[in-house]
Specification:
about 45% helix; mainly alpha; three-stranded antiparallel beta sheet; Deoxynucleotidyltransferase terminal-interacting protein 1; TdIF1; disordered N terminus; 2 domains; DNTTIP1_dimer
């Protein structure tokens, strides 16, 4: 059997794990956590192997989504990095299953209802400022791994700019011409709220000057209001499977 972080060899059996525990039984376990951690260390390789099997079961979905992002954004996107980050996010969410019983266990993102306050069309007025999703990604320290923002925070309202919107954004020099690739607009206030949260406020990679907010024309804001209302009535947070903008 390999070390704690390795995988169980083909000949590993529970009896062998029991032998390992028997050898440790000569120690004095005055701290209950020591006993439990020894048991965990013995079982960890087998647990790791089963977890790997679960991820392998869903890997085809992760791979398809990551390749789709690369095809729509550009070759600079690393699909493997996106997959690894998504897998780590799954493990982080799985921790909630074993939270302290005294605490309320939050529901997973896909189980959460639409945040009615965030997705209230009345928030969008003629003075509401927006930012490009690509800039929000950089501002929160996510660098060039595009799409991370939408995977990590699926509750965020995002609006996919249509050709008319892109034309205006390009004319106003808010973005460069990107052809048929996706471009998302997010509400500046939502991004600044994220930046002030515990997850980001102490990050050395925070770059809020990257946001470059702007006020869109009334006709574009009206389209976003209608889109928000449609999503709000849908009762589910929109899945982040769409390819992000460059």
């Amino acid at each position: 059997m390999e070390g704690e972080g390795g995988t169980a060899g083909p000949g590993w059996e529970p009896d062998r794990g029991r032998i390992g525990l028997d050898r440790c039984s000569t120690r004095s376990f005055t701290d209950p956590s020591v006993s439990m951690d020894l048991l965990r260390a013995v079982l960890q390789p087998s647990i790791n192997e089963e977890i790997r099997g679960i991820f392998n079961k869903y890997m085809k979905f992760f791979q398809t989504a990551a390749i789709n992002v690369r095809d729509n954004v550009g070759e600079e996107v690393d699909p493997e990095q996106l997959i690894q980050e998504t897998c780590r996010s799954c493990l982080e969410q799985a921790k909630l299953l074993f939270s302290d019983g005294k605490k309320v266990v939050p529901r997973l993102p896909h189980e959460q209802a639409v945040p009615k306050v965030i997705w209230d069309p009345s928030r969008l007025t003629e003075t509401t400022t927006f930012v490009l999703g690509s800039r929000a990604n950089k501002a929160l320290g996510m660098g060039g791994t595009r799409g991370r923002l939408y995977i990590k925070h699926p509750h965020l309202f995002k609006y996919a700019a249509d050709p008319q919107d892109k034309h205006w954004l390009t004319e106003q020099q808010h973005m460069r011409a990107i052809g048929g690739k996706m471009a998302y607009l997010l509400i500046e206030e939502d991004i600044r709220d994220l930046a002030a949260s515990e997850d980001y406020r102490d990050s050395v990679d925070l770059r809020l000057e990257e946001l470059k907010p702007f006020i869109p024309p009334a006709w574009m804001t009206e389209k976003m209001q209608k889109h928000m209302e449609t999503l709000r009535r849908g009762a589910d947070v929109p899945p982040p499977e769409e390819p992000p903008e460059p």
